[in-house]
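Quick question, first post here. What does this chain look like in 3D?
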Amino acid sequence: MQTVEVMGDRESIAEPGRLAQAIVDYGVDFEAFSVQDVRTPQNADFLVYCRRSDTTLGAAVSFCHENRIPLALLSSGINADQIRALRFPLIKVPNASLPIVRFLLDVEEAALRHKNWPVTITEHHQPTKKDVSGTALKIADMLGVGKEAIVSVRNWEQSQREHNIPEETREGYAIHDVTFTNPETNIDTTPLHVVVHGRETYARGLMTLAGAVLGHPEEFLPGHYNIVDLVREHVL
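> Answer (accepted):
Ran it through. Tokens below.
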């Protein structure tokens, strides 16, 4: 059985973060892999880095260099392009949820149909999330608009009222809407919309990615990859 190791411990305490814990919890039921939380890589066949900080990224990169092990980099605040001279596949994962990645591709296609139209990006997350959604920032970057185009909602009652979020997922949900406005009529398009309840979808996406990479090593030579491109090319 191949091993997926997850480096996702919190900076202040030696415990996995919520995403890392969700990946490990979901991996328990994924028969193809043994999924383990680690502070430093040990026996990985596929390594996931989802720490907010890059303080242990060097250890992850060194391990993957030495062992030719694929690395999935989930931390949106880390510039993967600066990692050069790769001897392993490095997959940038701005979002591990495949439904959200497909949503990004839908947004990209819609942007071609609505060139130069004003756009509003609205993202709802649980109140404990303090920063702007990485997905929303990715959308803004794709559309060539600034952060001011993003409306962030961190109010459970409002999000539940507008999107009927199940109570059991109130501690972890993500909703993204993208609306284009016709500059001549000032009429909005029907919003492009994606809803994610809980964190299992991110874990499922990572297991799908790991399965594709480990199952077809001849297609993943050393170099840079992006999960968005892999979905666009129907690899995932």
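The first helix runs from residue 18 to 27.
The helical segments are 18-27, 57-67, 98-113, 134-143, 156-163, 200-215, 227-232.
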